[in-house]
Every structure is written in structure tokens, then in C-alpha cells.
Design goal:
The chain is of the alpha/beta class. The chain folds into two domains: 140 residues, Rossmann fold; 81 residues, 2-Layer Sandwich (SIR2/SIRT2 'Small Domain'), CATH 3.30.1600.10. Helices cover 34% and strands 18% of the residues. It contains nine helices and nine strands. Helix 7 packs parallel to helix 8. The longest helix has 13 residues. The chain starts with a strand and ends with a helix. It binds nicotinamide-adenine-dinucleotide. Nicotinamide-adenine-dinucleotide binds next to loops. The site of nicotinamide-adenine-dinucleotide has 28 residues, from loops.
Length: 237
């Protein structure tokens, strides 16, 4: 069975910038990292205001899946996909039609909101409505605590059960495909090393080099929107 891990690069064709690619958010605004780093977020109301505005203006809210997301749905329908591990928070795999129980969101998703104190849950839509009504840093309506999206910020732990399931899927995979990820964010990237150690055929689809390139049985540098449908066609032929 095939386990696929995706990163921000699979969604750039849907109009969502990645972090480290040539048009990535961090290349254009190195300060952007603070908006998604928990210590800065909790300590500084101005960072929170900017972080909410970033979410409000994010193309991810209206983005639609592209050919690569759709090809991975075909891989699942062909019965070849075990788990789809994603570092993305945009929900585009589920929007494309991948089964939610096969998609493992290592870094959460941006559609939910959580109070960091009492853990009350609400939605991004509710928080953005309050921002539009003049509350730039909306507080929890239950306890007054700080709200954040249900995304894993830098400095936060990953959801343990999701990671455990991703590790199991990686260990049992016969082929492990990493798509659109610079493989620089741990512990997500370490799944690539685990796949290699477990004997999986390791395939990378990414325009730029990654620290794991030397371990790949196949390295595809072509644009993801073309390369992934071609790869899936090969798997399902
Ligand atoms: P990254 O930005 O570090 O790397 C993306 C890689 O994709 C780059 O190496 C780039 O060269 C490659 N790439 C981009 N578009 C491509 C294309 N069309 N064809 C071929 N290659 C392409 O992304 P990452 O490794 O996922 O790590 C970034 C972190 O940021 C993750 O934790 C993720 O949660 C988060 N993030 C998510 C989104 C999203 O949900 N869409 C967007 C930005 C950042």
C-alpha cells in the first residue's frame, strides 16, 4: 500500500502560497514566522491581530482543489492509498473528495478555533465575524482566554494520536511518496526517514532539493500539478 505525505507545495496551484518556495511567505516576509509561532502569539496582542488578519485574508478560505489533490482521490478509489498524511491546514484533500478518515492532519486545520485556557471550541467563521464587527483580537466568550485556530503553531506539540497513526501507516507502507514539502519541519519530515528505514520505496515530488533527496528511489522535479496525476496514472495502470 502507498502512504502519501503532502506539504504546502501541493496547494500552490490552488493559489495558496507555501512558506519556503520561491514565492513563499517567508521569503517575502521573514517576520511572518512570528504569526504562526505560539510564544509570540500568546505574548503579543499585536501579533494576534496580525495573525487573525492573515487568516481573514488567506486565499485558503476560498481555494479549490487542483489536479494533484484530485489525482490522490483517484489513488484512493483505486484501492492503493493507505493514508494521506498532510502538513497542510487548508482542508483541500477533503474538499477534493479524499475520505476524512484516511487524511491525517499533522498540523490541524484552520477551520476551527480553540480557547487556549478552557479549550472551548468554535469556528473560524465566528471569530472572523467578530473581527469584522470591531474586535481585532477576539477573546473566548466562555472564559475570556486567548483564542487561536486549531492549527499546530511552531512550538506546539503535534496531536499524539494523529502522529501515532501516521507512524504506523509509514511503517507498513511499501511505497511512501512525499509531495510538495521541503522536509524541513520536524517531526513531520522524520516520517520520510522512517519510511526509508522500514524498507518502503521512497518517492519525492518537489521542485527544490530537500535534506532527504539522497534517500529517494525516485526524485521528480516537475510541477506538482502535472507530476502527481502522471505518477498516479502509473500506479493505477
Ligand atoms: P514548505 O513551504 O517548506 O515547502 C514547500 C515545497 O514545495 C518547496 O520546497 C517548494 O519548492 C515546493 N513547491 C511549491 N509549489 C510547487 C509546485 N507547484 N511544484 C513542485 N514543487 C513545488 O512547505 P512544508 O514542507 O509543507 O512546510 C511548511 C509548513 O507550513 C507546514 O507545516 C504547513 O502546515 C504550513 N503551511 C501550510 C499551507 C497550506 O495549508 N496550504 C500553506 C503554507 C504553509
Amino acid at each position: 500500500m502507498i502512504t502519501v505525505m503532502t506539504g504546502a507545495g501541493i496547494s500552490t496551484d490552488s493559489g495558496i502560497p507555501d512558506f519556503r518556495g520561491p514565492s513563499g511567505l517567508w521569503r517575502n516576509d521573514p517576520d511572518h514566522e512570528k504569526l504562526v509561532t505560539i510564544d509570540y502569539y500568546l505574548a503579543d496582542p499585536d501579533i494576534r491581530r496580525r495573525s487573525w488578519l492573515f487568516r481573514r485574508n488567506s486565499p485558503a478560505r476560498t481555494a479549490v482543489p487542483n489536479a494533484a489533490h484530485l489525482a490522490l482521490v483517484e489513488l484512493e478509489r483505486a484501492g492503493l492509498l493507505d493514508r494521506l498524511v498532510t502538513q497542510n491546514i487548508d482542508g483541500l484533500h477533503q474538499k477534493a473528495g479524499s475520505s476524512p478518515d484516511r487524511v491525517l492532519e499533522l498540523h490541524g486545520n484552520m477551520s476551527g478555533v480553540l480557547c487556549v485556557r478552557c479549550e472551548a471550541r468554535s469556528t473560524l467563521a465566528e471569530a472572523l465575524a467578530r473581527i469584522d464587527e470591531g474586535e481585532p483580537d477576539p477573546a473566548c466568550l466562555v472564559c475570556g482566554g486567548i483564542l487561536k485556530t486549531t492549527t499546530v503553531m511552531f512550538g506546539e506539540a503535534l496531536p499524539g494520536e494523529v502522529v501515532a497513526e501516521a507512524v504506523q501507516a509509514t511503517e507498513r507502507s511499501t511505497t511512501f511518496v512525499a509531495i510538495g514539502t521541503s522536509l524541513q519541519v520536524q517531526p513531520a519530515a522524520s516520517l520520510a526517514g522512517l519510511a526509508v528505514r522500514s524498507g518502503a520505496r521512497f518517492v519525492i515530488v518537489n521542485a527544490e532539493p530537500t535534506p532527504y533527496d539522497d534517500f529517494a528511489a525516485e526524485l521528480i522535479r516537475d510541477p506538482i500539478g502535472e507530476a502527481v496525476p502522471q505518477l498516479v496514472a502509473r500506479f493505477t495502470a
